[in-house]
Write a structure and sequence with these properties.
This protein is mostly helical. Helices cover 65% and strands 4% of the residues. The chain is built from 18 helices and 4 strands. The strands form 2 sheets. It has a two-stranded antiparallel ribbon. Helix 7 packs across helix 18.
């Protein structure tokens, strides 16, 4: 087991449900279901295929002899024909009509569409659970003031919950993009070797209507509303790009979230989950490195870069088909989904166990708030105390310079408010100053925006998909 390379997306990151979606069992049993759907539809349209042949195929959808398939492929050097022969061995009476009129892409491309649809549904479920976890977090901390940052420089305060709404908003965009691709997804159908349907037109003695009905019946049997209107032998590889673009978007959202958590971890305002026996550093025993967030960033980078595989593959196709896409797509499509699965499980795991430190957020606010409060102090003293605006402005400027020197030159606390309190030009009481510097008065509409966003955008979505909520998100390492 440990002698050869094993893909870490399977051994370390992705969950079993996603791994099953791209397993050999799912792939080749889907091939057989497509062959069965083809044979059923052909029978329904008058091709002499017996019920016993169909029943034999139905009984052999899952008993795949992989040893026989490997031996056949070694001989014929063609994976689809190897499985046609293996399926024929399992149901000898049906052997003459298996794959009748079809080309390799009938099973290969249609299966890829089916598997990607299934994988997108898994991803959607994880996205819903990430939004659900974040909505609980945002609701809990909707009123907790915290420094906001632009350019990672202290700016006007926001609330912890409002910041979480920014993360949610990105995921809602990803869900909308995913839904669009799901709604747009079409089966390839049975287009033949160059997409003209010539073999099926011959099979049905030139009956165009039956050829079109054949595709419609196959689509219905495989759970699709329609097939693609035109294609070469393969469906346009732009489909792969469009789907992987959704995964890239999710990776972008998750990476942005993970970067924020890593920065907040450095500020000691938020920690991702950290188990009792977890080791942060092999050398520095005291460390609590944000490894889950870092792993999100690492896997997200892979998914974002992997999108280029689909882009280049779509651009490099020749005429009705080439085979330079096959080996690449065997890697790039499953691995994009496996990595996205790992990313979202990490995302959910972090949010559900994330810890906020209000005392630290208050401390950081206290360090910066004196400067931010000066405008409020100035206006209050002019309006309520009868002070001269220009005179007070100059006094505040001088006090601010001195306070900044204490902070930057000597590493001392910001004593600007103490200086203002001690200056008779302001005549402020402690009660007045406390009111003027209450952090909650500096967060604007943050709490209101959080409540409104959760009520109008988030909770209706979660109610629609409430049966999907509750997915486990355990990580192995």
């Amino acid at each position: 087991m440990h002698e050869f390379y094993e893909n870490p997306l399977c051994s370390r990151y992705a969950d079993d449900e996603m791994k099953r979606q791209f397993s050999d069992d799912n792939k080749f049993s889907t091939w057989r279901k497509l062959w069965l759907a083809l044979a059923e539809a052909e029978q329904e349209l008058g091709i002499p295929i017996s019920d016993s042949q169909l029943e034999e195929m139905r009984s052999s959808l899952y008993n795949i002899d992989y040893t026989s398939a490997a031996e056949h492929e070694q001989q014929v050097r063609h994976d689809v024909m190897a499985h046609v022969l293996t399926f024929g061995e399992a149901c000898p009476n049906a052997k003459p009509i298996i794959h009748l009129g079809a080309t390799s892409c009938y099973v290969g491309d249609n299966t890829d569409i089916i598997r990607m649809r299934g994988a997108l549904l898994i991803i959607k479920k994880l996205l819903i659970n990430a939004v659900d976890a974040l909505s609980d977090f945002a609701e809990k901390h909707k009123a907790l003031p915290t420094l906001a940052y632009t350019h990672f420089q202290a700016a006007q305060p926001t609330t912890v919950g409002k910041r979480a709404c920014l993360w949610i908003n990105d995921l809602l965009y990803d869900i909308r993009q995913l839904d669009f691709q799901l709604d747009s997804l079409q089966l390839l159908g049975c287009k033949g070797t160059t997409g003209t349907g010539a073999s099926f037109l011959e099979l049905f003695d030139g009956d165009y209507e039956k050829v079109e009905l054949l595709e419609k019946k196959i689509a219905e049997k495989m759970g699709f509303a329609r097939c693609q209107a035109v294609s070469g032998q393969t469906y346009s590889r732009k489909v792969d790009f469009s789907i992987l673009q959704v995964l890239s978007g999710i990776a972008q959202s998750a990476s942005k979230f993970s970067n924020d958590i890593r920065l907040l971890s450095h500020l000691k305002e938020i920690d991702e989950p950290f188990e009792a026996g977890q080791i942060g550093s092999s050398a520095m025993a005291y460390k609590r490195n944000p490894m889950r967030s870092e792993r999100i960033a690492a896997l997200s980078r892979y998914v974002i870069c992997d999108l280029q595989n689909a882009a280049i593959t779509a651009s490099a196709q020749w005429f009705e088909r080439t085979l330079d896409d096959s080996a690449n797509r065997r890697l790039s499509i499953p691995e994009a989904f496996l990595a996205a699965d790992g990313i979202l499980n990490l995302y959910i795991n972090i949010v559900r166990g994330m810890r906020v430190y209000p005392a630290v957020t208050a401390k950081h606010l206290e360090e910066e708030l004196p400067f931010m409060a000066t405008e409020n102090i100035l206006m209050y003293c002019v309006k309520q105390k009868g002070g001269d605006r220009q005179t007070l402005h100059e006094i505040i400027r001088r006090h601010s310079v001195k306070a900044a020197e204490q902070v930057k030159l000597f590493g001392k606390r910001n004593d600007l408010l103490d200086r203002i309190m001690a200056d008779s030009a302001f005549s402020l009481t402690q009660e007045e100053l406390d009111k003027l510097t209450d952090p909650a008065t500096f967060t604007g509409m943050a709490e209101y925006q959080c409540e409104k966003f959760l009520k109008e955008e988030v909770r209706p979505l979660l109610e629609t998909y409430k049966e999907s909520i509750g997915a486990e998100a355990e990580i192995r390492v």
